[in-house]
Design brief:
Elements lengths: L7 H4 L3 H10 L3 H4 L5 H11 L4 E3 L9 E3 L10 H36 L2
Antiparallel strand pairs: 1-2
Length: 114
């Protein structure tokens, strides 16, 4: 079956001529090729181009995915775990001294009975 872009319907005639052809021939619509699944999906895909992502995990086996959210960086939870661990470690290294001071203050208050 020929597609519209390889058929004379789409290459030789302008849109008004196509409409005229459809109206003049009794079964012209039946001759029009139906859309494939890819052709049906193209309008959705063109509206969602910013959701096509590449996983930020370099060890990901299937790095290309369609994101659920526009700011999603990883294809799955297992792929995001190394980045989460690194982020938590950075936070801990930056806040460890402050948290240790807070804990020691609380300990000293408990020892004094306050």
């Amino acid at each position: 079956m020929d597609r519209i872009w390889s058929d004379p319907w789409g290459t030789e005639w302008s849109p008004p001529e196509i409409v005229e052809k459809l109206l003049s021939e009794p079964h012209a619509l039946e001759k029009c090729p139906s859309q494939t699944h890819v052709e049906q999906a193209l309008p959705y895909l063109s509206r969602s181009l910013d959701r096509f992502q590449r996983c930020h995990n370099p060890q990901c086996e299937e790095p290309y995915f369609i994101a659920d959210h526009r700011n999603q960086k990883y294809c799955s939870t297992p792929c995001s775990l190394p980045a989460k661990r690194e982020s938590k470690l950075l936070w801990w290294n930056g806040n460890r001294k402050y948290l240790a001071k807070q804990r020691s203050k609380e300990k000293s208050k408990r020892k004094r009975g306050k």
